[in-house]
Every structure is written in structure tokens, then in C-alpha cells.
Amino acid sequence: FQSLRVILEEKITVNRERVAKLRRDNGETVIDQITADQIVKGMRGMRALVNETSTLDPYSGIKFRGLTIPECQARLPKKHNQPLPESVYWLLLTGDIPTPSQAEELRSELASRASLPQHIEDMLNSLPKSLHPMVQLSIGVNSLCEGNQFDKAFKSDCKRADYWKSALEDALNLVAKIPRIAAIIYRNAFKDGKICAPSQSCDLAENLGRMLGWDDPNFFELLRLYLTLHSDHEGGNVSAHTTHLVGSGLCDVFRSYSSGLNALAGPLHGLANQEVLKWLIELWKIVGDNPTEDDIRKYVEGTMKKGQVVPGYGHAVLRVPDPRFLIELEYKKNYIQNDPLLNIVELCYKVIPDMLKQQGKAKNPYPNVDAGSGALLHHYGLREYEFFTVLFGVSRAIGCSASQVWDRALLLPIERPISLTLESLEELVQQA
Ligand code: AMX
Prior knowledge:
By secondary structure, the chain is mainly alpha-helical. The protein has a domain at 272-379: CATH 1.10.230.10. The protein has helices spanning 2-26, 36-40, 69-75, 85-94, 100-112, 118-126, 133-143, 149-155, 163-190, 204-212, 217-229, 238-248, 253-264, 272-287, 293-305, 323-335, 340-359, 370-379, 388-409, 422-431; strands at 54-57, 61-64, 78-79, 82-83. Helix 8 runs antiparallel to helix 9 (163-190). The chain is globular. The N and C termini lie far apart (54 Å). The relative contact order is 0.14. Amidocarboxymethyldethia coenzyme *A binds at residues 237, 268-270, 272, 309-316, 356, 361-364, 368, 370.
């Protein structure tokens, strides 16, 4: 952990210089224009945020600190065939590929912080089982803010330049503890409420899997992939942007990310993976194990006729099949023989893009990450789809908390754009 701090300190000094130079030399340089359409259509394509951890290209997809996911799979320290989530976290925090010993250092540090205060376990155990798991997760993460290091630093005479140090402490605590919150929610809502303790020797994925109640190395392997795929998706998506926005008012990472989790819980965003599985199971019930392309078409037509979106398809930025979805298919090919639900996922991929193209509305007719993730979890016996977005939330804590460390490191200010009334927008358009 000490070496992580030292590396970050060096990088932060360099990057603060870069910001200072950018502002000094080019602070007034115009780099983009905004159209009226962008203002009324959810700010699509507007480049207006700084986010260091990842970038998203419409055609090549997500890059974590410049590395595609296949590059991460090839170059990051692994367990079996997938990157350790801890090595992804190191990469997002520092921009460097960790050495195996650095990944191990972070693994051990996170494992040592994995337990929860008893009163938070009691609080989670007292929540009604019927409360949606995402609400429970948001409550659990919010409650971690008690005694957080950032507030302590803020209230002491800590200099603003050093805020990142306490933000890093909190970020590590969030990533270390959120798997246990998730597992308690799962065990209470869907099982007998009993849960094993986190182990000092497991990585984040295996600890999560074991606390959920699995003892299957193949499931742990899938969780490693899952945590990597969902860890970050640049800064403009609803959950990352919410976390950044709330954090910009100097909320600690627990309250910021708790807000981000509520953002993730929308059906057009992270809840889509729950919606996809619900939709696929209904489809499976109707068409059986060996459907034809026409069977799928009929079902999709029914969804569209009801005016609903086809869950798991489309994306606000991507304009190609989501590389994360293609990795899910690759995983199925390499690890899973003949699973009827996953076969249906593949058949959907053959049929749905053409149907969405014909409908002519969606700018991206291709599958996103949610189109396949739930069916993979289903294969290993995790079938309670109301829980799926919680796993998304556990993963995304990695990217959102690393970003918040950098928000503090770069001394980013409170976010405060200007909103317009329709009348003022109409006037501006006339004047332009
Ligand atoms: N099925 C049917 N219609 C769709 C569609 C889909 N999967 N995706 C987009 N459309 C429609 C939109 O509803 C919109 O219709 P409208 O003009 O009548 O309002 C039109 O196509 C244009 O939308 P867009 O510009 O292509 O998409 P967007 O940027 O506004 O929204 C997204 C992107 C993801 C919300 C949208 O594609 C969608 O609702 N997909 C299904 C839900 C889903 O899978 N969400 C997960 C996204 C990934 C994630 O965050 N986890």
C-alpha cells in the first residue's frame, strides 16, 4: 500500500503541472461547439468532463488507461486466465500495469479491510427482504461514510493539495468492503441469511463468490472477468457522472458512490442487465431450448410493438457491438458447453441488430455489455436477476472510486454548469 501512495504522489505532482500548463497556455482555447440539439438531447457527444481512468471510443470501445480489455487480459497480473480485479484497480489508479508483487500488495491490503463494522451488518440484516437489492446496496455504501477519512481531513487543517490521500484511504475501504455488503444483501434476500467471513488469502472476486455461497473456481473465474468488464466506462455515463458530480461538492466517496449506485439502478443504465435476464427467461419459456430465428423475431416484434426498448441493445456512445459483449461470447465459447439460454443470447445477436436497423430509430442496433452478462451468471447458478445490478455496482466501485481520487488529485472544482429555459434557448438560437 505504501508503494501505491508513493507512486501516486509522483504521478500527481506531474499531472498537476500538466493542468497548470494547459490552463496557462491554452485556458481560453475553444475546442468544441454546442448545438441546441445536444442541449435538449442529453448532452450527447458533448466533451465537458475530465476523467483519467478510461476512455470510450464509439468504434473500438473502452480502454482502461489506454489498454483495451483483451490487452488487460494479456498484460495484467492474473489468477488463472483473467486479470485480478486488484490489478485492474492498480491500473486505473496509477495508469501503470502493476507487477505481480504490487498486485499482491493491493490484494492483501484490500483483503485486510474487507470486513464491516458490526452495526452496519446489523443494519443490513434489518432491512426488509423485499427492498430492491440496489436500494439496499446504496444504503449500505452510504452508511460506510461514518468516520470516513476525507471528512476528517477536511475538518482538520489538512491542505487541499493533500485531500487525495484521505480520498485514497476511503476509496480502498469502499472497494474492499462493498463485496461484503453485496453478499449480505444476497444471502438475506435469497438464501438463509448465513454468510462466511472474508478470507485474508483470496482475491476480491473469490472472496465475493465465497461470501455469496459458491465454492466453484469456474464461478470465481467468471467473477474476475465480470469485475474487469464492468469496472469502468469513462466519466460521462450516468453512474460515473453522478459520482463525480456529488463528489465535486466535496462529499466523501461513500456518499458520492451511493448516489452513483442510485443512478446505476435506472433501467436504461445498469438495471438493464436485470431487465435483459427477465426478458430472456420469458423468451426462453415461450420458444424452448432450440428456437429458430423466426421464433426470436416474433418475440422481439412483440417487445417493440409494446413501445418498449429491447434490453441489452443500443448504446449512447458505442456504434459497434460492445467489445465487452464480444468478450462474454468468447468466454462462453471457451468455457461453457451448450447452455440453452446462452445459445439464445447468441441467436438474438444474429437477429436483433437487423430488426433494430429496420425499425430505424436506435443509433446503435448492436448488443451492449448487459446482453450477455446475466446469462453467464445464470449458467453458474446465480439466477436471482434482481441482484445482478448489485454485482455491476460492486464492479463499478473500482472505476468510480479511482476517478474520485484523481478528482481530488487534480483539484477539480465543484461542478456547476448553467441550465437554460426553453425560452432562453429559443432566444439564443435566434441570436446565433
Ligand atoms: N430498443 C428499441 N429502441 C431503441 C433501443 C433499443 N434497444 N435503443 C434505442 N432505441 C430508440 C430510443 O428509445 C430512441 O427512441 P425515441 O427517438 O422514440 O426516443 C431512439 O432509438 C434513439 O435512441 P439512441 O439515440 O439510439 O439511444 P440513446 O443514446 O438515447 O439511449 C440507451 C441509449 C442505451 C439508453 C438505449 O439504446 C436503450 O434504451 N437501450 C436498451 C436499454 C439498455 O440496454 N441499457 C443499457 C446500456 C448500457 C449500460 O449503461 N449498462
